[in-house]
Write a structure and sequence with these properties.
Length: about 350
């Protein structure tokens, strides 16, 4: 734990300097505007299937994995005797391993396909991820040349965009958990809880940052960083939205089409989803059944019928006549169900 009062003598107090608190307030204002981006409006649209709204997840991989590198190898400077850089370093340790949750969530969302190594490389450095790579390069360049206080401003700006992103995905993750028990950690509430407990956001740290002063020249550089960060992340969010709404392919291989993957995930959806969509089961009833399943290990259909919510004959008929045939057709012949790139873009959920 840092004892900021011991570093008071290191705080700049030159005449004409500006408080960092002003810059942090500006970031909050920018955050409110950022929250109105079309991407977040789409994520908040509960009329659209929650799996469809998460169809951007595979194309977010390059950014997430690179963000870990940013923390470990660019923002972090060790050893250091500077209290501001020490705070930055502590933050990088707390923020560097979130990619582990992201990979877990990709599996839970149905995006953990077996592909050739060369195909995965072709995807990661294809036009599909070009915008992400540009944003990542910019972050690395910005952090590399920044002073300690400007690294704080960069982190605060990026984290403020993450707050809006996670607020939207957290609501979707909750829907998925209710529907079929998938408990996402990167896109769910755990990520938000952990982020809010970072050292940089404790009362002592915030008091320390708000007490700092910077020169007019440093303020101008900070303003540039804030503006550029939000501009870049608006572009990034727009790119993710485009990946949801427009069919994508690589070398004609629809395995990489997020439109198709979302379609396939729907087609192999769990039994509980079918029952809810048919009006035979409520969200609350499904949640109770899923919690009971974790304890007993019973089949979900058996639990639901034992409560008298849906007759076992109805569940058996649904499985035999609808669920199994749809799953087999989707998995056996994916290309037949793929949206044609010759047609106009298909909007998920229309």
């Amino acid at each position: 734990m840092f004892f900021w009062q011991d570093f008071r003598h290191q705080i700049i107090s030159l005449k004409g300097c500006i408080s960092v608190e002003e810059l942090l307030a500006l970031i909050k204002e920018k955050q409110a505007t950022f929250a109105k981006a079309p991407f977040f409006e789409y994520l908040r649209d509960t009329k659209i299937n929650p799996s469809d709204r998460m169809a951007f997840a595979p194309c977010f991989a390059f950014f997430v994995m690179s963000f870990s590198e940013l923390n470990r190898h660019v923002l972090r400077v060790e050893p250091t005797t500077e209290p501001i850089q020490a705070l930055v370093n502590q933050h990088t340790y707390e923020d560097e391993d979130h990619w582990i949750w992201f990979l877990e969530d990709l599996k839970k969302l149905g995006y953990d396909e077996s592909i050739k190594f060369t195909e995965s490389l072709r995807f990661l450095w294809s036009d599909e991820t070009r915008i992400q790579r540009e944003v990542v390069r910019w972050m690395f360049q910005e952090a590399e040349s920044a002073t300690a206080i400007h690294r704080v401003i960069l982190i605060e700006s990026i984290e403020s965009t993450a707050d809006i992103f996670l607020e939207a995905t957290q609501a979707i993750a909750q829907e998925l958990k209710i529907i079929d028990g998938r408990d996402c950690r990167y896109f769910g509430d755990m990520h938000t809880i952990v982020d809010s407990s970072h050292t940089m956001y404790t009362d002592d740290s915030q008091k320390f940052l708000n007490s700092l002063s910077i020169t007019p020249e440093e303020r101008q550089e900070a303003l540039r960083i804030i503006d550029k960060t939000f501009d870049m992340f608006v572009i990034l969010m727009s790119d993710l939205l485009a990946h949801i709404k427009v069919p994508k392919t690589i070398n004609g291989n629809f395995m990489y089409s997020y439109e198709l993957r979302s379609y396939l995930v729907r087609k192999v959806k769990p039994l509980g989803t079918y029952l809810i969509e048919a009006g035979l089961l409520t969200y609350d009833q499904l949640n109770i059944a899923l919690q009971e399943q974790k304890v007993t290990g019973q089949c979900l259909g058996d639990i639901i019928s034992s409560h008298g919510w849906v007759q076992s004959e109805t569940i058996e008929y649904l499985m035999e006549k609808i669920v199994k045939p749809e799953r087999e057709a989707a998995l056996a012949h994916p290309s037949e169900n793929a949206p044609s790139i010759d047609n106009e873009p298909i909007l998920i959920g229309r």
